[in-house]
Amino acid sequence: MSNLDPQAALSVCGGRGFVVAEPVRELLSPRRVQLGESTVVRRLLPNLGRRMVGAWAFVDHYGPDDIADESGMQVPPHPHMGLQTVSWLHEGEVLHRDSTGSLVTIGPRELGLMTSGRAISHSEESPKPHARFLHGAQLWVALPDGDRHVEPRFQHHTDLPTVTAPGLTATVILGSLDGAASPGTTYTPLVGADLALAQGTTTSLPLDPDFEYAVLSMSGEAHVDGVPVLPGSMLYLGCGRTELPVRAESDAGLMLLGGEPFEEEIVMWWNFVGRTNEEIAQARADWTTGSRFGEVKGYDGPPLQAPELPAVALKPRGRVR
């Protein structure tokens, strides 16, 4: 998924110095962003209060949207570098095309994992015909310096491991949770899990005290460590936790995101994750001139144009603003 903001801002984030080293309860509100022709997303990361959770650097939540009489998601070809994109759906389908030749339809609770590495381009659209409702999340994972120039690839996993307890089914999207490990490739210690909770469920999830965590609410009403978290909001939890109490006031869907605090400071602008302003500017130039990022074949429409770079010097601001 692309960041379609025409006024894309440069941000520097990462580094352990700004990590909350103890449990907290910091509720993050979303910013609404138009994506493509008809999709409005709720952007939780980067946020005015926080830029990263582990290596998770970008989180959009969208839907549920009734697209029965609409085109649905239509995101033209656009570039990525230095990151992984994670596509996760609760309802609907997304047709993924990329410059490595991938052509895959991603369905509910299937992992679409694209590792951009040094350079890739892709498009995303609702297939024709498509389901009535579209509801999901799009997330980015920053790649560490030693792996950010790997060859691009796309992985589609339809059979993911689950952890169950009375009233809870946790699907492990990336990393591992309570002994269950996702087949998706990761480059830093992290976890992503989808939590389906039945109304009235009270349970506790095992956590790694060295990880920092956040919980994104997808649907329903749940209390996370005593804090009500409503759909489209995210609760940042800090580090130092060994378990996380959760209570469902209704049938609810949550996403647990966590990982070791990201060591490196990164520069994130538009659809690129790099380390310097010069590197980002070169990536923009390469996309504009049609080099390096390859070609997405089969999409009916032109690729996205890159926004103008801001004429400002980069100033490290750490993981929080």
TrEMBL record:
SUPFAM superfamilies: RmlC-like cupins. Transmembrane segments: none annotated. Fe cation binds at H78, H80, H122, E124. Pfam families: Pirin, Pirin_C. GO terms for molecular function: metal ion binding. Binds 1 Fe cation per subunit. Its cofactor is Fe cation. It comes from the Bacteria. Residues 45-141 form the Pirin N-terminal domain. Keywords: Iron, Metal-binding. Residues 193-292 form the Pirin C-terminal domain. Belongs to the pirin family. This is Pirin. It comes from Streptomyces lunaelactis.
